[in-house]
Amino acid sequence: MKILAVSDHEAPALWDHYIPGRLDSYDLILACGDLKAEYLTFLVTMSHARLLYVHGNHDGGYALRPPEGCDDIDGRLVVYNGVRILGLGGCLWYREGPHQYTEKQMRRRIRRLKRSIRRVGVSASRSPVRS
Asked: Which domain does 111 fall in, by range?
């Protein structure tokens, strides 16, 4: 499986200077935060790949206009073609704002996912947590 991971900056080669077919070889796109919703919508529209994303600390606008055709996996465990992907977005808390967590808050988020992680176990192919 070929995965494209994107984060923080819109790549001109995939946005401003896009060439049709450039994304055809990707099976999955993982967006790791701090990207415009329009950019993610563009990527999923121009590719044949599924796009999974988590929120970055600058992604407060997604609440009003989330990326279209993309799946928010923040706080979820997803199995895609046998690959387990745990979505934990945001960053270390440094000021007031969305998607920022203290160490204690992040540990709590992880603890809530432990049951899903155990359920998937060693064999992702038997997992009921499919997407």
From this structure: 3-126
